[in-house]
Specification:
CATH superfamily of the largest domain: Vaccinia Virus protein VP39
Structural class: alpha/beta
Number of helices: 13
Helix content: 25-40%
CATH class of the largest domain: Alpha Beta
CATH topology of the largest domain: Rossmann fold
């Protein structure tokens, strides 16, 4: 790192970014170095949720927003054999390259010099190294059989879900990946099935922190067709299952599925394993007579079921001696904040209000968590 920038970082550490503080650091360095340093401390603070060593790393704001959490990056790396060369075609600030470099030799490509400089620093912070090239990965000669790509989905700070605006183009990446042993491409899970399936026949939807964080497309001679949900924290993997006939009559328990399990079409698999049935048209709520526990859902005991009528539900909350602290919904729209206010009756029993669709009707459940 440039000595002036390093000095600016040292002088600005722990300082609030006030005009006077920025000016004082500027006087001992220069205005651009001072602004950059205070910006880095802000980005490092934001990055703590993704990186344990964030306070020693360097960032570019847009690249940090798309950067993979280090636990998820570790999963990405696990998809490749150990001790073989893996190329990161979209290095950015090095989030995935760090994970890949822990398992073996790597090569990183990046078009932006500042991001590549951040990646080099961030590898060093983790005691790692990689062969880094400032060039277009798709225009380079590929001397590797394994590769990873995370196409940029932000254009001038604006997030886009139009694959034609991604950089590099996912279709071009997919075409190149079919010619190697294994290529892994990270994309948004919000992209439609038709597009993801047009790229490759092995899809994975990644659960981390209770969210469906991403979709992975695996291509190449070593990629085996399949559709899965992957729970990063536990390492569990769930395969797509056949859809089940739904019911409009809730049983004793409600299972609220992990978003990645829903996105990977794994509800049928969970129904079979836990003797459950999809509830109405909710696409994510199952109901069962058995009390079950799994990383793939949150379990609740159903205490009340009725039509979507606030007056009736309020009376049920009062009779249960409860207080609605959250409102959950799948497949319906409602003013959750208004409902929560109306049903906060200060009772002792914590309740969740669940809204679910049964055809054109909206139904209510009052439930209590079994996972606390």
């Amino acid at each position: 790192m440039d000595e002036i920038l390093d000095l600016a970082l040292t002088l600005s550490e722990g300082k609030e970014a006030t005009a006077s503080a920025i000016q004082r650091v500027s006087q001992k360095t220069n205005p651009s170095a001072s602004a950059w340093a205070f910006g880095q401390w802000d980005l490092r603070k934001r990055a703590k949720g993704k990186f344990q060593l964030a306070e020693k790393m360097l960032f570019v704001r847009e690249a940090l927003e798309q950067a993979t959490h280090e636990s998820v990056a570790e999963y990405h790396a696990s998809l490749f054999p150990r001790d073989v060369l893996v190329a990161d075609l979209t290095t950015g600030i090095g989030a995935d390259l760090i994970g890949l470099s822990r398992r073996g030799p790597t090569k990183g490509f990046e078009l932006d010099a500042e991001r590549l400089s951040c990646a080099r620093n961030n590898l060093e912070v983790h005691g790692l190294a990689s062969s880094l090239e400032l060039r277009d990965s798709l225009g380079a000669t590929w001397d590797f059989e394994y590769a990873y790509a995370d196409p940029a989905r932000r254009i001038e700070g604006r997030r886009t879900l139009d694959p034609t605006e991604f950089e590099p183009n996912p279709l071009e990446i997919a075409d190149r990946f079919t010619k190697i042993k294994l290529g892994v491409m990270k994309l948004s899970p919000l992209l439609p099935d038709t597009f993801l399936e047009s790229l490759g026949s092995h899809l994975e939807f990644i659960s981390f922190g209770g969210e469906c964080r991403e979709a992975l497309v695996l291509l190449g001679s070593e990629a085996v067709p399949g559709r899965y949900a992957v729970h990063v924290e536990s390492g569990q993997r769930l395969e797509e299952g056949n859809p089940r006939v739904t019911t409009c009559v809730p049983s004793e328990f409600l299972l609220d599925l992990d978003p990645a399990a829903v996105r990977a079409h794994c509800a049928g698999t969970l129904c079979e394993k836990f003797e459950a049935t999809p509830l109405g048209d909710s696409n994510g709520y199952l109901t069962s007579d058995l009390q079950s526990k799994s990383v793939w859902f949150r379990s609740y005991r159903i205490l009340y079921e009725g039509k979507g009528d606030v007056k009736s539900t309020k009376q049920a909350v009062r009779e249960l001696g409860g207080d609605v602290f959250e409102v959950k919904q799948r497949g319906v729209k409602g003013d959750v904040h208004k409902l929560k206010r109306e049903l906060s009756l200060k009772g002792k029993l914590p309740l969740s209000l669940v809204l679910w669709p049964d055809g054109q009707k909206v139904r209510h459940l009052l439930v209590t968590s079994l996972d606390l």
